[in-house]
Design brief:
The chain contains 18 helices and no strands. It has 341 residues and is mostly helical. The N and C termini lie close together (11 Å).
């Protein structure tokens, strides 16, 4: 996928540099709200359920929609752990444990491998079985396949079901589908992006930052965009790392800092962002570190940054044969650092 920085035109005036503003609120209420968000991000209820009593008000007596909201996005290890608490919990979570089996086979048929031939139709059938048992993970995967095969209305249905049950991936995908619709539904898209963002979903944070930066569906806010880019970058989202670097380089929404701009550009480059590799290679060239510059420029060239090839050839003429061979070896053996993409 082609990587982008700003989507606004190059002739647009930049916002004046603004520092981050952190509101201080030491009231007990704000602390409670913070705890609630962490619990919501972990797909757990705001308060741990009380141990089932001898009455009929145990966990298994919860309405299905409440149960789905609490445990619908649980992974198999979490479901197994919760099922060990008591018999009522084990019985109530049985459909979701079954859903994990369908989810597993759905992924096998979606990606293939391990003796299984890729088959989107079979994958979709398994995901739908898992979704029918309340797994929001399966709902999102079903939505992804529907989107891939062009049945976008069906995809939106499943994204919405997962989103309304609190699944942050479902919320983010639903928002993006609204942004890409014709005509777009930016108002509802922003609402869902914000819900997923405050719960820690890094892709949603990046998309929200883009909307704030472009003034799409909301008033343009350079400071707010920089803040959400930074949160997504700290969460490991590579594109946000690159845009955070640009914020610091240009002084948009934050104080201008070439040190922090270089730091985030290198982090993006080390995680495979081709444009960042090109720009970091240029920085190393300007600093006189020719061999490392060649490594990053070679990586950028291999990723399709054609402008990097010309600069690389210029530098190679200045290096000894040994240094050229060393640089190419480093590029050949380079591995991207882990990221959430």
């Amino acid at each position: 996928m082609k990587q982008k920085s700003w989507s606004c035109s190059s002739g647009s005036p930049h916002f004046a540099p603004l520092p981050f503003i952190k509101k201080r609120n030491n009231s007990p209420t704000s602390k409670k709200q913070s705890k609630t968000r962490i619990s919501y991000f972990n797909s757990a209820p705001n308060q741990p359920p009380s141990p089932p009593s001898s009455s009929n008000s145990g966990f298994s007596a919860l309405p299905n929609d409440v149960l789905a909201r609490i445990a619908g996005s649980f992974t198999l290890p979490n479901l197994r752990a919760a099922s060990l608490v008591c018999r009522a919990w084990r019985d109530a979570l049985k459909p979701l444990r079954e859903a994990m089996g369908f989810l597993k086979w759905g992924k096998k048929f979606k990606h293939g491998g391990g003796g299984v031939k890729a088959d989107l139709s079979k994958a979709l059938d398994y995901f739908l079985e898992g979704a029918a048992r309340g797994s929001t993970l399966a709902m999102v995967d079903a939505g992804l396949i529907y989107w891939e095969i062009g049945k976008k209305e069906n995809a939106v249905v499943w994204y919405r079901r997962a989103a309304e049950l609190g699944d942050t991936a479902g919320q983010c995908n639903l928002a993006i589908s609204f942004l890409q619709a014709n005509p777009s539904n930016t108002k509802e898209a922003i609402e869902w992006l914000y819900k997923a963002s405050v719960s820690g979903h890094v892709r949603a944070q990046y998309q929200l930052a883009l909307c704030l930066h472009q003034g799409r569906g909301v008033e343009q806010n350079s400071q707010g965009a920089a803040r959400w880019y930074s949160r997504a970058a700290q969460g490991g989202y590579v594109r946000a790392m690159y845009n955070t670097s640009l914020c610091y380089s240009l002084g948009e929404g934050v104080w201008q800092s070439h040190v922090l701009a270089r730091k985030w550009m290198k982090r993006a480059a080390d995680r495979g962002h081709s444009r960042a590799q090109f720009e970091h290679g240029l920085t190393l060239f300007s600093e006189g570190d020719l061999m490392k510059a060649v490594v990053y420029l070679e990586l950028a060239t291999r990723a399709g940054e054609t402008a990097a090839a010309h600069v690389k050839r210029v530098i190679l003429h200045r290096l000894s044969s040994t240094s050229r061979d060393r640089a190419m070896h480093l590029a050949d053996t380079w591995l991207a650092k882990p990221s959430s993409r």
